[in-house]
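User: I've been going back and forth on whether these two constructs are worth ordering. Before I decide, could you fold them both?

Assistant: Sure. I'll take them in the order you sent them. The first construct and its structure tokens:
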Amino acid sequence: MTLTKIRTAAASSLAAAGLLFALAACSAPATTTPTTSAPASTAAASSSAASGPCAGVKVIVDSGSLKQAAADKSVCVPVDGPTPASKVLEEADVKTVGTTQYPTELVCRVNGVPAADFEIKHKAGTYKEECAGMPAAFAYWSLWVKPAAGAWEYAQEGLATLQVSPGQSLELLFTVDGEPAAPAA
């Protein structure tokens, strides 16, 4: 493949990702059917989030099919009422990094994952996330919210504006080539 074709493909992917984010912000929340596999998470911090109900907000970080589990965790963050998702992640000791172009609007790395030198394997080969602009449309972190009694929904807002409440769950899920398509139940 020539350099021109590669650049054209990359530009098309970025444009598609941008359109995807724009459409997600304008659309009604989509209810998803949970997948049957459980997130690869490790219990830590505030309470027994993985083993029982959470009186606050359950925070889950799942590196999904990325296979770089350093970011994975599941914790319960105590909150009394609606709280910015960014603050809940901070309390859960989840560190997010945006991109150069979109420093607070997008999530490029979670707890250092994917590492800048990590080769992400996908259908078309390998890719290294540089966190410059839009993440690749085939490999990215997505933000999900689950009400106390309901199904996972793709977040319609970013971390800076999304408010979460006691009883809800918040998940950052890394997807490669569309897998996993949604958080586990």
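The second construct, handled the same way:
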Amino acid sequence: MALNLSQKQEVVAELADVASSAHSLVVSEYAGLTVGQLTDMRKKARSEGVYLKVAKNTLVSRAVQGTDYQCVADALTGPLVYAFSKEDPGAAGRLIKEFVKGNDKLKPKLVSIGGQMYPASHVDVLASLPTREQALGMLVNVLAQPATMLARVLAEPASQVARVVARVGEQKEAA
């Protein structure tokens, strides 16, 4: 169905809003997927905080102007689905990687993060990024490790004194 000018402007505004706040973008070719498969992918995307959109490439090119994703504007050709990670940088990569396992018709085309465009092979790299909770857990572990080591170092002299006193007491009892 063809869009009129005001509908196109709404789509561009919506995409520009999402692109301005998204953490990453995965663009994939979806030719050959059924409506049911796309619907399943949309449901999963909503639950994972990924904005998934099928739109005309010219509208997406206009929408990403002035954002970190401006670098992909020239590479948008063919029937494409756009997955923007809204909450977690790796969410779109995980979604596409998981969906590709069961659907060989979906083919990642490019990845964009931090104002840089990468080839489709970087979907695996993006998918391997830790979630926010995992990253916070790693940070807590790194911050707690020096404190744990300090506590061990400070407690060691006291435990050595206790062992020496115990040995002396054992020797006196034996004698």
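Notes on the second construct follow. DSSP finds six helices and five strands in the chain. The longest helix spans residues 132-174.
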